[in-house]
Design brief:
By secondary structure, the protein is mainly α. It is about 40% helix and about 5% strand. It has helices at about 10-25, 30-35, 35-45, 55-60, 75-80; strands at about 10, 45-50.
Length: about 90
Amino acid sequence: MASIEAEIFESAASAWEVTTKVRLGKLPGAENFAGDFSGRVEKLGFRKLEITMEHAQRAGLLPGCSQRSFRPDADRSAAGRKPSDRQQ
């Protein structure tokens, strides 16, 4: 069987997401990783994906983004409900 190599990319958004989840307690045990995110991903051989403001702006204009995804209270509003009770 042939070996399949996949490139893994990381960006500032990746670091932001990981460190935020650590702060919120959603990634227990990842505190050291989050504390040295750049060093860790470099050692793992991840490639940097340079995201510019233009990239972010264009991504924000793509169709299909749910407004709910960007509401600060989205997690709290769904708390305590089963996935089947949530609106799709």
